[in-house]
Each structure stands twice: as C-alpha cells, then as structure tokens.
Specification:
- There is one protein chain.
- The protein is 73% helix and 0% strand.
- It has 191 residues and is mainly α.
- It is flat.
- Bound molecules: protoporphyrin IX containing FE.
- Residues 58, 61-62, 64, 81, 84-85, 88-89, 109, 112-113, 116, 118, 122-123, 126, 157 line the site of protoporphyrin IX containing FE.
Length: 191
C-alpha cells in the first residue's frame, strides 16, 4: 500500500511540464551518460546529419555551415553548432525541475528561432530525430522508458514553442490589420 503510494507519487506528472519525478530521473541519467562518454558533439553532429538527410531544405536556415560543400565528418562549423545546440539542451536538463525558469529559457530560445522563421514543425522534426539519435548513441543503455520520458520532455518544449509562435503570429496579424484599417480609413477620409 505504502509502496504503491510512493510509486504513484513518483509517476505523477508535474502540473506545468507534464514530467514525473521518474521521467526527470531517467532524462538526467541518460544525459549524464552522454556527457560522461564525451558524446555531446558526436550526438549533436549525428542529429544534424540525420535531420538534413531527411529534410535537406532545413539546411537553408544555416548560413554558417554547408553540408552540400563540406562533408559532415570534417565540417568544423557543424561540430561547433552541434555543441551550441547540445548546450541549449543541457540548460533545459539542468532546469528541468524548475518549471518557471525552464519556461523563461524556452521563451528566449523560441523568440530567437522564430526570428529565423523556424517553425513548430521544424522543432518537432528535430525532437523526433534527437530521440532516435540518443538511442543510436546509447544503445542498450537507453531504455524504452527513457525514450518515453524524452518524448514527453520534447512534447513540453514544443508546446511552449507553438504557444509563442501563435502569440507572435497573432501580434503580426493584429499589426497588419491595424495598418490596413488605417490605410482604408485614410482613403475614406481623403477627397
Ligand atoms: C530544442 C531545439 C533547439 C535548441 C535547444 C536550439 C538551440 C540553439 C542555440 C542555443 C543557439 C544559439 C543561440 C541563439 O541564437 O539562440 C541556436 C542557434 C541556431 N539554431 Fe537552434 N536550437 C533548436 C532547434 C533548432 C531548429 C529546429 C533549427 C532549424 C532547423 C535551428 C536553427 C538554428 C539556427 C539557424 C541558429 C543560428 C546558427 C548560427 O548562427 O550559426 N535550431 N540554436
């Protein structure tokens, strides 16, 4: 009875992030493995290579490296970006149990990426390849339960992204409607 109580507390989803304490533990454990085995850059680089081979058009967001000209294995810029990206994920994992701070971080990254016209769909593609890449790098150390925990992690990350995208699109629509109506009303007034 007591045991069942603690198990259910351990699996209770957080009100904001939807992640249970067990999810947090599994995510932190797999992330530690990636760090301890010096897999940060290889994982990030493999992720981008997989992503770009499935969706070559996503390469066009990046001006700093071009996989069409320089292959992934020797592309220094790709390694640098892989590390930048993985550092971003590292911050998420660090603040995973501080939802307010995590949400603030997610907003910051969302705004900087929406400015580059990265869509929620792009983010979802990235997330799905990220989880596949973790599986390929960690092999049997990456359990099905860990995989589900990471899926939930990115579900939350992308929900926030989609919310910010909607808000920004709403602001842009409102501004353009105001501009149109100002133009229309000035036309009506003009002789
Ligand atoms: C969870 C998902 C992602 C995280 C955590 C992340 C993280 C970051 C970070 C920390 C930076 C550098 C700081 C900044 O400019 O904001 C960055 C830059 C960038 N990201 Fe992301 N990113 C993600 C997804 C994506 C996706 C899906 C794309 C588009 C395919 C993308 C495209 C870019 C580009 C083009 C830059 C600028 C690169 C440069 O100037 O060299 N990111 N990202």
């Amino acid at each position: 009875m007591g045991c069942a109580y603690f198990r259910s507390m351990d699996e209770k989803p957080d009100d904001i992030t939807g992640l249970s304490r067990k999810d947090v533990r599994l995510i932190r454990r797999s992330w530690k493995l990636i760090q301890n085995k010096s897999l940060l850059i290889p994982t990030g680089a493999e992720l981008f290579v997989r992503l770009f081979s499935a969706y070559p058009e996503m390469m066009d967001y990046f001006q700093t490296f071009n996989l069409r000209e320089s292959p992934a294995e020797t592309n220094q810029k790709l390694s640098e970006h892989a590390l930048t990206f993985m550092n971003g994920i590292n911050l998420y994992v660090t603040y995973i149990d501080d939802p307010e701070l995590w949400v603030a971080l997610l907003h910051k990254v969302a705004i900087s990426h929406l400015e580059r016209l990265v869509t929620t769909k792009d983010m979802e593609r990235m997330a799905s390849f990220f989880v596949k890449t973790l599986r390929s790098q960690l092999g049997s150390s990456f359990s099905v339960e860990s995989e589900r925990a990471w899926d939930r992690f990115f579900y939350f990350v992308n929900t926030i992204y989609a919310q910010v995208e909607l808000q920004i699109n709403g602001i842009i629509r409102k501004r353009s409607t105001q501009t149109i109506s100002t133009k229309t009303s000035s036309r009506t007034v003009a002789p």
